[in-house]
Amino acid sequence: MLTQHLRPAAISGFLIVFLSGLGLAQPTPTDSTKGGPLDLGKMWTFDDPPKEYFRKTYNFTADEKWFDESRLASLRFAAYCSASFVSANGLVMTNHHCARESGTGVARKGEDLNATGFYAKTPTEERKVDGLFVDQLVKIEDITKRIQEAMSSAGASQGQTDASQLQAREQAFEAVKQEYSTKDGWKGLELQTITFYNGGRYALYGFKRYTDVRLVFMPELQLGFFGGDPDNFTYPRYALDCSFFRVYDNGKPLQTTHFFKFNTNGVRDGEPIFVIGNPGNTERLKTVAELEFDRDLQTPATIQLLRNRSSALQVYNATAKNDSILNEIFSYENSLKAYGGQLAGLRDAGLLGRKAVFERQFKADAKAKNLPAEQLKTWDDMAASMAQLRTLFNDATYLAPNERTSGALLAFAGVLIQFNDLLTSRPQDAERARSLVETPTVSNKQLEEAYLAAHLAEAQTGLGNDDPYVKAAFTGPNGQFKSPKEAAAYLISHTKLNDPAFIKELATRPGAIGSSTDPMLVLARIGFPRYLKAARQARDISQQQEVLRSQLGRMLYAVYGTAVPPDATFSLRINDGIVKGYAYNGTQAPILTTFAGLYDRNYSFGDKAPWSLPARWKNPPAELLKQPMCFISTNDIIGGNSGSPMINKNREAVGLVFDGNMESLPGEFIFVPDLNRSVSVHAGGIIAAMRYIYKADRLVTELTGTAASKAKK
């Protein structure tokens, strides 16, 4: 499931790990003697479409019209998925797991669309999804020179500080958007500045936003997420992970000439194939020093945080049975598996070896280009900054106050410590700040205790038993607590931070916060100052690293130009691959699966979740069983590509991307297509399900292009 994975987040400008082992797959042996620019992947931009590369690689000439039509038929689905137009009547195709974010919101009283799915038999039954929008990229402008000059000028005039350059960049972004918002052809568009090559290139994108989007078709959760988390990021696969919406314009279905016609005839082994979508984020330009930091510290900590929060929610939801919490668990588990695969890749000496080979080649090529000596020091400067960051990691991570990592009460204790510092350092602002000090709301004591216990366990592991913070957390009036759970239960039962009267007294009585014996405040007085010091230093280092990454990006572009695509930034990309099987589990993965395999998996697991099937799927017609369901290809995808159309050279939709295999998960930092595979729902499989199970004749007619006028009635 290719939704964008939960990541460490920054709060109040400071470095805070927001979320995070997992039984990790054994690394695949990789030839570390190889490595080069193409390890950075194939996520080509529409600013510089790879016409010559496609011609040389596939003997396929894609002209400007081919790329323009492909771009205009492709969409960004809200702020988290991809999609495409697939009919002249504004029909939009995306994944089921994207529809779960929005489609279920149109359920009426007594309906459970996760259980029943949805199909609008007539146009009048199509349901508008409030707040949902799709964006079509219609304008592109190169603004590189303007942004880089603004940054250079700021650095020259303000002593080359990292903060001044970044501030100048943001100001230049705003000025560009303001200017273009009044230009002919750009008025009324959603404007977004896009950064490529970490600052090697910049562009302004103009999107036409459609806000009247209506649900047309969505299968049951049992089909859209068949196999659940156990089958996630695996192959062979049997998920009908599709859904369809329709864009309306002035109350009528949008009429468009930009769409991908359905081709249900299948895909051939070795056939060139293209994915167009919005990959969320890759970090393939990272240096070896950065990747080693991720391997040793950041990624393991993130996995631990994710696992603990998911476990807490699963225990709670065993009795609560809350759909929104279930979706949150899905997100955690999806991210857990993704980060687990990334960590396995980071621990693969072959993959890190390839990165080292490319780094050496990049340095040599940059030197051969006679780039300035100051730029050639960038790798050393980055390594030095990563060494600094390592010394700050524990305090910046394990002492971070955040209600999702440590519970609302301990996070609030940190707020009070910050308020107390304000009383001393800036008494003139104290009264205004006092009005913001409100008693935290603990909506669920079970989750509050679980989050706090998880935080204490992580602090114990990360900081060690001899750390003053850990000692204070695990020491009660009768000695040492036996477990994080016991310590958390004591802290929550003995704090008064959920008492409004107590909070009012603390906020108004001088010295009360600093002298209080409340156990949460005692703990926060030890941990929060350490966190604040480390987070501020980490913030400064992060600014320095952002400038260093920009220098690396500019060097990469100077050396290789558009022959190497930039990292993903949730901006529209086109990538190429071929339909191809691969060796796995001692055998060979077929290029496609069939509905017969769906039923085999269902029967093999005794019709138990997550391999159970709805009643209407229990007695399929024989013709359905031999129809293709999913297929694989070597395309380069990542989170955010969910809902991307898979098209052939004729710009026909042959599939719908929804996942990658386990071997694709290191794609966060390197693209090695040997075993990396994208997994798509087959266009023929979508039509087969609509025809044989859902009796969605109206959509079958519209998608297959026969009697198109009938679809409008």
UniProtKB/TrEMBL annotation:
The keyword Metal-binding does not apply. Keywords: Aminopeptidase, Hydrolase, Protease, Serine protease, Signal. Gene3D superfamilies: Trypsin-like serine proteases. The keyword Protease applies. It holds the Pfam family Peptidase_S46. Residues 1-25 form the signal peptide. InterPro entries: Pep_S46, Peptidase_S1_PA, Peptidase_S1_PA_chymotrypsin. Its EC number is 3.4.14.-. Catalyzes the removal of dipeptides from the N-terminus of oligopeptides. Belongs to the peptidase S46 family. This is Dipeptidyl-peptidase.
